[in-house]
Amino acid sequence: MEAAEEIKPDIEAPLLSERKNHNNSNVDDDDDSSKEIRTSPFKIDEIWEEMKQQLKLAGPLVTYNLLVFSLQVVSVMFVGHLGELPLSAASMATSFASVTGFSLLRGMANALDTFCGQSYGAKQYSLLGIQTQRAMLVLVLISIPLALVWANTAQILAFAGQDPEISAEAGVYALYMIPSLFAFGLLQCLLMFLQAQNNVFPMLPIAAFSTLLHILVCWLLVFKLGFRHKGAAISNCISYWMIVTLLGLYVRFSTSCKETWTGFSNKALDIGAIFKFLRLALPSSVMTCLEIWSFEMMVLLAGLLPNPKLEASVLSISLNTATTLFMIPLGLGGATSTRVANELGAGRPYVARLAVLVSMLMVNIEGISAALALILGHNFWGYCYGNKQEVVKYVGQVLLLVAPSHFVDGMQSVLSGIVDGDYNGNICPSVVSANHNVTHRLGKRS
Fold first, then answer.
1. Which residue from 218, 339, 396, 445 lies 20 to 30 Å from 283 (Cα-Cα)?
2. Number of separate domains in the chain
3. Domain range holding 435?
């Protein structure tokens, strides 16, 4: 039988081209492809090996996510000691920024999970740099209209019925946060670029250094130099741009990126390729936005309650706590996405399926542990943000509701990571039963 015509890898979607080639292959090729078709239960040593690989990737990702997110948490903590109004305003502005900017950029950058992850698995290394540059260009352009929205935060919040005093102060905070919007988009692209290569350890010292410096800069600007809550916003901008600069220098000069980053290329400007990126980035962004908006909108809606300063402050503290803990399953989801994309790109769907089952097992364990920690410490956590007893007591009550929510959100994060890594639907049909399957198979092997 005549062999199928060879199809060269598409510069934008090497894995899709390989799958077309596989589907058009003759029957003689089935002997090779069948090597990956396996229905027997996973072995304990396979599960353990996959768990070690995911933890090796997820550990640095979790730490990095915690360090970067702590920039905003630390800023709100400092502002909280200025009084109830500055805390409410900073909380409102932070939530507004997340809803109208950060969540959108994060979601669009997540498309690189698929593009870069599968390109790396298919050994099309030069594509990673081109795809990352294209994503950077798109996100910077998207940030321009978002910056205009942030510049009018006070008017938008007031029009939405928020307290005029809080809206005015939140508008000032958001205005000083605008430079961080552009840095955040670039940062997400660099993160996905390195994550796709399983090269995440260099991010830790950079994030740790920037976070420690952020504490000092924030303290100086807020308390010593008299910038008050504006100083917290400025310190966020400085820290984000510092991380972007240091990561950019690492990517440019590190030998570990010499094959994946070969300099700026005109191919990143290809209009057709940009639309291909948007076709995946926009749905990814919608999924991320819906997830984040469900949290942040509560802070904005709290401003419509009878005591907006108290309600907004308490909800902001509670959701900051929930989001901080969420960095753990977010790291697991990122590791899962990378593992799934890499293995599918390398033509090993069986290993990708194993990665799904192991990640669901680990996120369930994490969810139970974190929920217990929230329940045990709910009466004390509020003191980190201030000494007002009314706020501390109210925060404790809300954290009891956050505990079960975190468990469910953790599973959702990993499932989102699976979808990002498996764009073409190879393993998603079995995702719903992943938790049951891994438990059942572990029981059978023991």
1. 339
2. 1
3. 41-286+304-445
